[in-house]
Write the structure tokens for this entry.
Amino acid sequence: MAGYAADSPTPYAGGRQITTVVRPDQRTGKLVRSVVVMPRPAPAPKAVPEITVKPRVVNPVAPGAQPGTAAGGRQDREATPGSFNATVARIAADQQLPPELIHSVIKVESNYNPKAVSPKGAQGLMQLIPATARRFGVVDAFDPVDNIQGGARYLKYLLDLHGGNYALALAAYNAGEGAVAKYGDIPPYPETVNYVQSVAEQLRKNHAAAQVGPAAAKTEGGPAAKKSTRIVEIHEADGSVRYVSQ
């Protein structure tokens, strides 16, 4: 035989088709009829429409807004100096510190942002590094009250350590106690020198603001505000600059 004979395909139950094929058996040489069942073709898949889900925005913040500032430029209450006045006054009285000093350090350190974190890992309003926070009993450095309590304790400790010298205490707050002990004065680090100057300037501003209306306080029978310690910049003959408290 030169070829095979095939019948036309016929329908089969279930949508399938059958085809009869006649071909020689290779062993006996006789013609053999075979049945080929063609499977039912699979249906084409249905097209599924593409669904786009829009992202949900929660508490949107304006691009470029600073920490503590919500969309539209509204600043959070806890990021304003006035909201900390009562806390600072109470803690300052407990630690026998001028409240103006604590406010000055907060202003320079974090600008009243309780969630501030520095590149060196200092945290919160008074920018306490974790080791210092633990040393002075701070559990949560991002809690404003806890942070101010720890920072005030540290300032009080440094003032006692340096005999009430505000300049040295602030230098140690910025550069560390070891740096001040090494030089016996404000370390010659630009950052530390600028820091002491900045806090001193802010302290002068806060002291002046605290003196507004002392006569009215006396008229109302209230005690007059206690004068804060000032930091004075002194230029020596050799060109060096030092800071002393008065």
Notes: The beta strands are 5-6, 10-11, 17-24, 31-38, 231-235, 241-245. The longest strand covers residues 17-24.
